[in-house]
Write a structure and sequence with these properties.
Elements (H helix, E strand, L loop, with lengths): L3 H13 L8 H11 L1 H14 L1 H16 L1 E8 L8 E7 L10 H15 L11 H9 L4 H10 L3
Antiparallel strand pairs: 1-2
Helix pairs in contact: 1-2, 1-3, 1-4, 2-3, 2-4, 3-4, 5-6, 6-7
Amino acid sequence: MRTAGVKRLIGLALSSLPRPHSEDVIDEAFAAIEKHPEWHKEYKELCAELGQTVVNTWGGFYIAAAEGGQSVRQVPATRSTLIQSYSILAPSQSAKPKKRKEVEARQLMSDYFSQHKTKLPAEIRERRELIIDLIIEGASAEEAFRLASLNGK
């Protein structure tokens, strides 16, 4: 898995935070990464390898998945400078997202893009593979496009 390093780093950051985690856990996890010299170095290396958009998008996705939370709204980051904004998480009542096959993910991405292309930012086309990967991992097409749109820098 291309983002295994991101998942591992996020796991370390989450395990360092006091429980129960707050609705601001995404900002708190990135702040923990930023303050821990080894983790910050690893974060920078992952960004150099994968791009900051990929690292931040997958970081938020992995945190939400680990917490079982659903995005309530987007807010500016206040604890970390690694991210510009993050999703406030509300507890999830649903089961873990189901992984999809690549063919299904590509179709969902294509259908969503066709229906919403006039409302999407032009640079979203550059994030096609990121969107497909998110959908494969269980994100809805809407959530994948939202994450890819928000985390571009």
